[in-house]
Amino acid sequence: MNDPTAALRGLLTGRLRSHDRRLRRFTEPQWRRYGDLLAGALLVAVRRRFVAGQDRAPVIRFVAAARERYDPTGRDVDPVRAEALIWAALGEQPPVPDDPTAVVARTVLLLGLLEDEGLLPTELDAFLTAAETAATDTAKPTPPKPPQAPTPQ
To answer: Is 7 helix (H, G, I), strand (E, B) or coil?
Structure first.
């Protein structure tokens, strides 16, 4: 089975060949699901580490540390975009549009957040379940607001 959750698990457990092999076999719907899952995982991880309204310095330091660990050339992850992804996850900025640079930044940030946490295998299972829930919730279109009845005068 070529499940996006299994691919993400492979990435997060360091099984990069398995992860890459799964990604190469993805269909278009699986790619969309993987993108949603990655966004959901980042949302959960960010909210476990940071809080809305906090000082910007810890976010800036975290992004710099994650880029140092996972982007040795310094060209793959735009720090402004990475910080925007974190603030968007906290609800302090609008969502960042999906594109290849956002996917790379999400991946690097997620790896950094989870490495810092040092999750046990059972904790990773719970994390992936929460990420799936967040991905499903964020992938649902926002229902239109019902029309308001005219107010009596």
So the answer is: helix
Taken in order 20, 26, 28, 32, the sign of the CA dihedral is negative
Tens digit of pLDDT for each residue in 53-64?
999 999 999 999
Sequence-distant (≥ 6) Cβ neighbours of residue 117 within 8 angstroms: 45, 48, 49, 123
Q: Return the domain boundaries, the chain.
A: 4-139
Collapsing DSSP to helix, strand or coil, 90 comes out as: coil
With b for 16 or more beta-carbon neighbours within 10 A and e for fewer, the 16-49 pattern comes to eeebeebbeebeeebeebbbbbbbbbbbbbbbeb
The model's pTM is 0.84
User: Shortest CA distance to 66 belongs to which of 38, 105, 108?
Assistant: 108
Tens-place pLDDT, residues 107-119: 999 999 999 999 8
